[in-house]
Amino acid sequence: MTWRLRHLAPLAVLAVAACQHNVSPQGTGPRPSPVTTVDDTEDSTPSSTTAVPTTSQAGSSGSSETASPSQAPAAAEFAAAKAVVRAKGYDVADTVADWHTGWTINALAGVFHDSADGHRQQVFFFADGRYLGTDTSDPSLSLRVTGRQPTTVTVRYGVFGPQDPLCCPGHFASVRYHWDGTRLRPLDPIPPVSQR
What we know:
Elements: H1 2-19, H2 72-87, E1 90-92, E2 105-112, E3 121-127, E4 130-134, E5 143-148, E6 152-159, E7 171-179, E8 184-186
Antiparallel strand pairs: 1-2, 2-3, 3-4, 5-6, 6-7, 7-8
């Protein structure tokens, strides 16, 4: 049974990624409570999250995380952030090319380490290299970081209807998270946990 799960999990992630290209955009739902911000003293029991691998804005293939000498600060910051995410039980889906040294806010998508189906996903936020917390207190079935700017990160959530299979959400909702220097706030409604 364990062998099957280990070998079928990558196929499940590919199925989710394939479905996301054939679905109508923009779901809506009630406005949730504010973003959960976590400090270093909070219990590090991971909540579940699975991230669909993202493509790098810098064009990285995602197969290598080695950096040239000019990328060394980004590689060091990325490695430290990746260690935080892994300590919380998640595998980082992003690459060093997705990390921007000098930007106020950075985010890494993570998949829960023991997720057999790739559906326990969260986004982990960092301000000036310091861990802030996750996008929501509960994990999502399907998400992807789709935009990065110096103070704002955009996350695209799969929004599932009652008849949607786990591979293929019927809608998507993009949520921009903005760091104002003291708080991380969603600028758009976050889909309710029952739909994401």
